[in-house]
């Protein structure tokens, strides 16, 4: 390798034509010749040497004009210093006033105000602000009165006692007979005479979709219930609901309650789930594990999800479900999944118990097709 090759990784600029001993041109190599590798003292000495040689040449060539040349050099140096000061001052002022960033205010104590100010809006920028949190609170405040808690009651067999044992009655005179036994049976409450009474068997969520008392929920929430009670905000006692229609295949049910005071119930608007996009913010409201009116928030994780759920009647196939990472737990079933406008885009239905943040909701596109049939029990 010749002497020229070992400079190809340095900084600086120059180029050299290399020739062999015969004078024939072989190649042209562009290299980076670094002046930054010299020490400051060496640079100063080199500069003073060059300046001294230049002054000597001017003195020899000019003779009696050397004084004028010296004054000219001082004038040029003074002009250079003045120019440097002017340019430096302008650069400082430009940086201080942020002249080259479109007029945006400098970052400081007003950072939050700048983030939502008109300067960034004019530049086409969008940033998160406290207004988004206020919007979520407003959606919950408006929607939660229409969300109800549903409790179901079923018959529970009366527990047997020793008095029910025929052998016990035979030896200890417990056998009922004659008019005395008939009188005791007549005095029994009707639910006891049938050998059962109503007990709380489960709970879930629903919501008013019409102000005259129609409630939408899951079929599995009210399945097998002898009586359904609905807790509505603003009422001291639960209201008894009637199951108008249900569909096991779709896991949908419509209930109906009557207002004791004749007032209209608050209701939620059904939106179009087809217009939603993956990544949209969603809000779930329900009664998970008995914690009434719980709100959770997340995003729409996926659409058109098929899942299979095993229940008492076998495997239940669902299609076209919405997937969300908003927390869905037992008790959320039948509750609304809302979009950013407060519209219902789905009914919370299922959750993957072995995972976190994988919940599913029946989309409103499925619900809207059968809603009137559910109301009239003609599905």
List the helices and strands and how they pair.
Blueprint: E1 14-19, E2 25-31, H1 40-62, H2 66-97, H3 111-115, H4 118-122, H5 130-143, E3 147-157, H6 166-172, H7 178-187, H8 190-193, E4 196-210, E5 214-217, H9 219-222, E6 227-231, E7 239-247, E8 252-256, E9 281-286, E10 294-311, E11 314-324, E12 336-338, E13 344-351, E14 359-363, H10 364-376
Antiparallel strand pairs: 1-2, 3-4, 3-6, 4-5, 5-8, 6-7, 7-8, 9-10, 9-12, 10-11, 11-14, 12-13, 13-14
Task: Give a written overview of the molecule.
The protein is α+β, with helices and mostly antiparallel strands and 379 residues long. Among the domains are: 58 residues, no CATH class; 96 residues, Trypsin-like serine proteases (Thrombin, subunit H, Beta Barrel), CATH 2.40.10. It contains ten helices and 14 strands. It has a six-stranded antiparallel β-barrel with strand order 3-4-5-8-7-6. A six-stranded antiparallel beta barrel has the order 9-10-11-14-13-12. Strands 1-2 form a two-stranded antiparallel ribbon. β7 and β8 form a beta hairpin. It is elongated, with a radius of gyration of 43 Å. 23% of the residues are buried. The N terminus is likely disordered.
């Amino acid at each position: 390798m010749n002497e020229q090759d070992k400079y190809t990784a340095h900084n600086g600029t120059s180029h050299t034509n290399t020739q062999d001993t015969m004078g024939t041109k072989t190649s042209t190599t562009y290299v980076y010749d670094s002046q930054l590798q010299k020490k400051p003292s060496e640079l100063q000495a080199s500069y003073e040497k060059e300046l001294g040689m230049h002054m000597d040449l001017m003195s020899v060539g000019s003779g009696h004009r050397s004084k004028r040349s010296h004054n000219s050099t001082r004038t040029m140096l003074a002009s250079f210093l003045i120019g440097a000061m002017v340019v430096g001052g302008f650069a400082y002022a430009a940086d201080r006033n942020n002249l080259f960033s479109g007029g945006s205010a400098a970052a400081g104590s007003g950072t939050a105000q700048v983030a939502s100010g008109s300067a960034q809006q004019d530049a086409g920028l969008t940033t998160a602000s406290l207004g988004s949190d206020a919007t979520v609170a407003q959606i919950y405040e408006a929607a939660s009165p229409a969300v109800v808690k549903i409790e179901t009651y079923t018959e529970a067999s009366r527990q047997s006692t020793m008095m029910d044992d025929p052998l016990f009655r035979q030896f200890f005179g417990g056998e009922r007979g004659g008019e005395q036994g008939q009188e005791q049976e007549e005095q029994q409450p009707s639910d006891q005479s049938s050998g059962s009474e109503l007990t709380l068997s489960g709970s879930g969520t629903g919501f008013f979709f019409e102000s005259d008392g129609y409630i939408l929920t899951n079929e599995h929430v009210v399945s097998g219930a002898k009586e359904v009670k609905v807790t509505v905000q603003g009422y001291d006692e639960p209201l008894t609901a009637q199951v108008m229609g249900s569909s096991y295949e779709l896991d949908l049910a419509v209930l109906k309650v009557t207002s004791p005071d004749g007032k209209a119930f608050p209701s939620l608007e059904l939106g179009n789930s087809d217009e939603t996009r993956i990544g949209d913010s969603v809000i779930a409201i329900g009664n998970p594990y008995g914690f009434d009116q719980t709100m959770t928030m997340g995003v729409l994780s996926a659409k058109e999800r098929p899942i299979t759920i095993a229940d008492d009647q076998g495997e239940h196939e669902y299609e076209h479900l919405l997937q969300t990472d908003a927390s869905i737990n037992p008790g959320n079933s039948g509750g609304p999944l809302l979009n950013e406008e407060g519209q219902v885009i789905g009914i919370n239905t299922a959750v993957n118990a072995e995972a976190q943040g994988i919940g599913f909701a029946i989309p409103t596109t499925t619900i809207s097709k059968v809603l009137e049939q559910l109301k009239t029990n003609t599905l």
